Amino acid sequence: MSTEDVLKSKFPDDALTFSQFRDNHRVVVPAAKLQAIFNCLKSDLGFDMLSEVTAVDYLEYEGATDRFGVVYVFINIATGERLVLKTFVNDPQPTLPSAYSLWKSADWLEREVFDMFGITFTGHPDLRRILTPDEFTAHPLRKDYPLKGRGERHNFPIVTRADS
Amino acid sequence: MAMKDVPDNIFMTTLDAAASWARANSLWPMPFATACCGIELMATASSRFDLARFGAEVMRFSPRQCDLMIVAGRVAMKMLPVLQRIWLQMPEPKWCISMGACACTGGVFDTYAVVQGVDRFIPVDLYVPGCPPRPEQLMAGIISLQDKIKHGGTLNGTEFARRDHSTGPIPFDKDELIRIREANEQLISLN
Amino acid sequence: MPFEVSDLAEMDAPEKEYLWTLNFGPQHPATHTTLRLVLTLDGETVVNAVPHIGYLHSGFEKLGEHLDFNQYVTIVDRMNYISPLANEIAWHHAVEKLLGIEITPRCKYLRTILAELMRLHDHLLNVGTTGLDLGAFTAFLYAFYQREKIYDIVESASGQRFHTSYTRVGGVMFDVNNAWVDKIRDFLKGFMPVHAEVHRLLTRNRIFIDRIKGVGYLSPEDAISMGVTGPLARASGVLRDLRKDEPYLAYPDLDFKVVASKDGDCYGRYLVRMQEMLESVKIIEQCLENIPAGPVNIDAETHIVPPAKPSVYRSIEGLIQHFEVMMPNRGYTTPREEIYAATESPNGELGYYIVGDGTPRAYRARTRPPSYIHFAVFPHIIKGHQLSDVVAVLGSLNIIAAELDR
What are A's interface residues with C at a Cβ cutoff of 8 A? Predict the structure, then answer.
């Protein structure tokens, strides 16, 4: 049975949207069912590697209804099959269950999504900022944050020859 | 003392000139290598280009032992406090080369996280442009710096004391100026 | 030998006051770039390691939303600066997949040669600096001289020795000539003896083996669970190589082996890298023999690549077409779709997730950086080892800070 059939038979009532673009097999799932689908992917379908977690801010995307899309890429090492899973979350407090308990690679990947987009993952052991400094307040990859920042990069004391 | 009394193997000079000569020909670089330029710095120091020919190959990673800081690569806002701290730890006399477009001006990385030129926050003596500069170019930079040291140096380094502000380019972008002013106001209000 | 992790479980850091905290980096010679580790030590044994990253975070992905597909290649270059062309190839591989472009056979072979040269580039530096960090300076100098030759080769193809920005959507910047092919043949001839020399210097060197054998063991289960790919995963016995599993470019036509080891330690990773270099040489030789003639760019009628220069200079249609491609407010349309595409970069699976919004500019250009995933493994494999092993393990992971932080 293919991945699509298994997921459809396990979650018959939920609106899982399957699609294919080029060689990407994709599925869009509701955020409420994410944890159950994670369990199914890991134990029933054998997707043992979580290769990628990222997010997209659809604020300025034409025709988009949800604010954030969170994308997971799974690999089944035995068969080489790849699955791109997407779910949507919205303001004001975008929250998703963490995948850390099933795939350890989710640790830093989810921290980066939190740092860059402000999406929190419940159940993550150590959800801190990872790339930006601790005192940073913004989430830079959100579309409402300007490319050149809000002056953070100029906010340092100046060391002169006289000081040193 | 008449010159005829001096034996052949004695020569006279000013102490400043002698000190500058010695300093110029035994630069000990502190490679502050953060990104791509660091690899070109490695290339400059290794097989083909061999920086040792110009008396500047003794790379020391402890700032206390160095007199030339080579900032190679972009400096992100998380890294700048580290850079300043290392600069302050280096003993006088000391010089700074800003290597590569990113260290000089921010280069292609005109983004929220990259400092737009290290010269805004630490004094820089020499700029080596390029992305990244070729090893030949860095060597030319080091030779120019040696020249500068020979001609400008004094024994106690007082020539640097006059410079009391950073000598970087002035930003021409209006938004940039507004952002800087806001940041400064914020800093003042915090203090 | 490292002691068992179970012994360490009861060593709770706050309770034991005799434990030391050591800050390592972000400006430390053995990190090569800007990594920072906060190590908790019991004597010389590492009890815990907390990596702090972001010291080179430069907003690559934010820039990717503001530059078009061809402009952004200059930025991805600067991501993994040990093997810049591998990033370019990965980026344009993803873009071409989004646009549904099939590049010409000549371009496929050309890119394959360059990708494999970059693998040599990366592994040479990694093997060299692993030796350098452990006190063997000679191998580093030998390796770096070969890197200089690769610099020469890419310089004669693209005009820049370091950040080449050589690939374009649907092709490459310029075609290459026979002199370039001969140059690579010359290089390969000189490379084999140097590879053998490095083997003789390091592989059976007692000190080198003592420092890295059995250090930093990563089990295959952990490697899969932590998302490790590339030489690291193969050294742990996870047989996954995108060149075989999801063939792209000219790899389906070529005969080569996937190198793997069952050791899972630093020595295994070193051996995998050394052997992979030989496989790369084999691939390059096959490509040089079989490189097809023909155009290097796709047809200009697609309005994605600019037309040939004679047509631009001599005909009004050609000139208009050139402007249509080059002007920032014109250009082609992209599908309003999302794609994840990955290639096997020297460091592992380098993937891009691109969201197209109809313009020749990514709405979101996400990189899946192998270094980022691999550095997360570090705290797990260093526990129980000596302080001096930190350098050996860091070297074997081959962390590139610009790719780590982006």
Answer: 21-24, 26, 48-52, 54, 56-57, 60-62, 71, 73, 77, 80, 82, 84, 86, 103-105, 107-109, 112, 116, 129-133, 140-141, 147
